[in-house]
Amino acid sequence: MRQSTLPRAARPRPAARGRARFGRSAWVQRRDRRGIWFVVPFLVGFALFMVVPLGYAIYTSLYTYRIIGGTSFTGASNYTQTLESGQFWSGVIRVTIFAAIQIPVMLAIAFFFATVFDLGVARFGTAFRTIFFIPFAVPAVVGAVMWSFLLEPQFGPFVHLANALGFGGTNFFSPSLLLPTIIVIVIWEWTGYNMMILYTALKSVPRDVVEAAILDDTPLWKIIVRIKLPMVRPAIVMLVFLNTIGALQLFTEPQILSYFEQGAVSLNYTPSVYIYNTAIAADETNLAAAMAVILAVIIVVISGLSFIFRRQRGELR
Amino acid sequence: MTRIDAQPAGAAGAESRRQRRKRRRDAQREAEIPVELYGLPRGTVPFLTSLAFLFAIFTLIPIAWLVINSTKTQANIFETFGFWFARPFDFFHTFSLLFQNVDGYGTFIQWFGNTALYAVVGGVGATALAAFAGYGLARFRFRGSQLAFYLIIAALLVPVTALTVPLYLAYAKAHLINSIWGMVLPSMVSPIGVYLMRTYADISVPRELIDAARIDGAGEARIFFRVALPLMVPGVVTVLLISVVAVWNNYFLPLLIFNINTKYPLTVGLGLWSDRAVNSGDADLYPMLVMGGLVTIIPLIVLFLVLQRYWRGGMLLGSIAN
C-alpha cells in the first residue's frame, strides 16, 4: 500500500505548503491533540493502580480499628506511633547500613569488570558477560533459597568449608553475620545487571578520545579514571539511585531467610518486612498503611533530592 | 525528497538483516583498540581473565549446586558433598512430584502455569501500554504531555512496597483478594517501560516518515501499527523482556493478595515450601524445593540466551545510562 500511493502523495505537497501558516499550525495542533489517545490507556492503569492505592493508603492510615468500638478516625496517631517506635527506625537504619555497604561494593565490582571487558584486556569477554548476567534471570526467592541451602548452619557446604579453613562454628545466619550474608546474596543477584549497564555506557565513549590519550603516552589507569569514569558518571549516578530505592525496600531475601532460620530475622528486620508483618500477621492494616506512606515519603525525598541535584548539574534531560 | 527516501529504507530492512548484523559486528571489532597499544605489563591479560573466571565461579556456584542436588534424595542433599552427585539418582522421581499436590500445600505445575499466565498477560499488556504511551509521548505534543511525562518519572521513584500494601488494602475492600486480575492488571502498569519506549521511539521513528504516511492519508492508528511499531521492535522486545521478568520474579504482591494455593505463582509457592520444609517438619519437601527452583529458573535463562542480542545490544536501561 505504501509504495503505490507514494508518487500521488508527493504531488499535493506544494499546495499544502502554500497554505497560511496559521492554518497549518492549527492542523498540527489538532493532530497532536489526538496523540493523547496513545497515552490514555497507560494513564488509566496508572491512576487505578498507582494513584488510587496511594490515596487509599493515606486515607486509611488516618483511621484505627479497635475490637471494641470498630473503626474510628484517629488522625495522625498511626504516624506518631510509627515515628516514635524504635522498631520502625531500627529497620530503616539497618537498610541504610545495608545500602551503604552493598551498593559501593557491587558497583566497584561491576565497574571493574565492565572496564575490563570494554578494554578487551581479558579473554572470553562475551562468555563472561553472559555468565555474569544469568542471576538477573533468577527470581530473588530462588536466589535466596539456593544461598540458604549453601549457607545453612548444620549441613550447608559453605559451613563445612569454613570449618575446614579453621573457622569452626561459623554460623552465617547468626545476628552478626546475617546482614553480610544478605549483602553477598544481593551482590550475587545484581552485579551482572549493573555491569551490563556500565559496559554499555563505556562502549559509548568515543574511540578517538581514547586513541589520542594513548598517543600521548597516557597510562591506562589515567585513561580509565580521567576519561572513561567521568563520561559514564551519569550512568553510575543513575545506578546508585535505582539501587538505593531497591535497597531501602529490601524484603524478599530476609523473608526467605527467616523461613530457613526462624528467629534469625526479626519481625522488624527491614521496614518492608515490618510492614508485611504488621499488615498480615498482626492484621493492623491501618498502622501498616501509615508505615507504607512513611517509607514512600522517605524514599521519594531521598530520590527527589538527588533528582533535583542532578537536574541542576545538567545530568538529566 | 527525504520523505520518499525514508520509506523504502524501512521496507528493505528485513531482507538484509543478516548482512547488517555482520556489518555491525565487523564495525564493532574495528572499533576496539588493539590490546597491545595499552602498553600493559606482561601477564595482565591472564591475570584479569582469571579474576573474571573467579567471579564466574561465584556466579555459577548456586546454580551448579541446584543442578547437582536436583538429582539427590532428601537424605543425600544433607549428608553428601554438595558439589558432587550421589546415588540413588532421584531426578525423575522428584520431577514427577512436581505434578502432584504433596502434603496439600499445592501443586508445583499449577503454580508454574499461573506464573506463565501472569507473566505473559502482564508482560504483554505492560509492553503494549508502554509502546502506545512511549510513542504518544515521543511524537505528539498535546496539552499535558509534559505533565504526563513528569508523572511517569515520579512514579519511578515510588517504592513498590509502598504501592503494594495499599493495593492489598484496596483489594480487601473491593473483594479482589485471590483474583487473577488483581495480579495481572497492576503488572501492566510499568513506568520504566514507558520511559524506555519513549526514548526508543524518539530515536528510531523519524518524524518525516510519520508525516509522509499522514500525507498518504493513513490514520494515526494505522501509522502506529504499520510504520512506527516495526521500527520500534528492538525496543519493544527489550521492554517485553524486562516486564516478563518483573512479573515472573514478583514476590511481594502475590504474597499479599493470594491466600489460596491454587492461585499462587512459583515464587510464593516456593516460599511456602521453604517455610513448611523447615518449620513444619515436612522434610520430603526439600528435594522438591530444589527441583522446583531449577524448573523455575530454566525458562528465563533460556529466554535470555535466545534473546541475547537485545540486552547485549545495550538497550536494557542503556538509554537511561546515556
Written description of the protein model:
The complex is a heterodimer of chains A (317) and B (322). Chain A contains 16 helices and two strands. Chain A has 317 residues and is mainly α. Chain A folds into two domains: 72 residues, no CATH class; 232 residues, MetI-like fold (Orthogonal Bundle). In chain A, strands 1-2 form a two-stranded antiparallel sheet. In chain A, helix 5 crosses helix 16. With 322 residues, chain B is mostly helical. Chain B has two domains: 60 residues, no CATH class; 217 residues, MetI-like (MetI-like fold, Orthogonal Bundle), CATH 1.10.3720. Chain B is 73% helix and 0% strand. In chain B, helix 5 packs across helix 16. The longest helix of chain B is centred in the middle third of the chain and has 32 residues. Chains A and B meet through helix 1, helix 3, helix 4, helix 6 and helix 7 of A and helix 1, helix 3, helix 4, helix 6 and helix 7 of B.
Proportion of helical residues of chain A: over 70%
Low-confidence stretches of chain A: 1-23
N-end to C-end Cα span of chain A = 38 Å
**DSSP strand (E) fraction of chain B?**
under 5%
Amino- and carboxy-terminal Cα gap of chain B: 32 Å
Strand order of the largest sheet of chain A: 1-2
* CATH class descriptor name of the largest domain in chain B: Mainly Alpha
Predict the CATH topology of the largest domain in chain A: MetI-like fold
Please report the number of helical segments of chain A. 16
Query: Which residues of chain B form runs of ≥5 with pLDDT under 50?
Result: 1-15, 318-322
CATH architecture level-2 label of the largest domain in chain A? Orthogonal Bundle
Biggest sheet overview of chain A? 2 strands, antiparallel
